[in-house]
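Example record for the data management plan.
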Amino acid sequence: MTLPRPVYVSAVSLALLAACTAPPEIPPAAETPDGASPALAEIDIVLDQMSGAFDNAAQYAAADETLKRPPAPGHPYDWIDQQTASFHTVEAPLIGDHVVYLEWRSGGPDGPISRQRIWSFNADKDGAITGMDFYTFQAPDPFAGLGAAPGAFEALSLDDLIGYPEGCTLGVERPEARAWVFSLNPDTCQITARSGRVMRIEARIGLSSEDIGTVVEYAEAGVLEGGDYAFKVPGGPAYRFMRR
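Corresponding structural encoding:
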């Protein structure tokens, strides 16, 4: 993806249904006869699995007490905090056909907003996912709490967002059924921060359906030329968000 101007940035088992007398539900086949419901495209499965409210309360409760503190200078990768995350599929035609607005809040659902992002998924004509681009907002406040509001993102354009440059589209892997991993190649994704520091960006987003439910994992970091972290979110292992 090529942006029209220089860019500077700061920092998903199919549930088993037990039936006593009814026959088991059969998932749609890749090809269906005339008049039958078509198979669900991959992009639709991902968006459906991802949409909703999540938190990392279980991860936070299990963490060592010494890690439960805000990030601090000199300690960029030994902390964890509690976050509530909401993911909403939104209509944003000026951005793309498959757009997600995410909003994180610190501590709980009523806590202060810690992150607002736009994720735009790319898919081919058959609905197979080919990658994903993510953006921050030039001015995020007007969109706070509007993930489920009809029409709230219809006029959103690339001019309202801050994106990463060419080479920073997240690729997609499918390690197993009903699991997806979106990741950046730090060898191709390089940015210049507002401070003037050049850094490589590492990012990994995992989506999976497990016995415990849908899980979204998230990790992102900026690596300076000397190998030190400019930032690392979170400070320890990836956030592990579970559907609330």
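Summary line stored alongside the record: Residues 1-33 have pLDDT under 50 and may be disordered.
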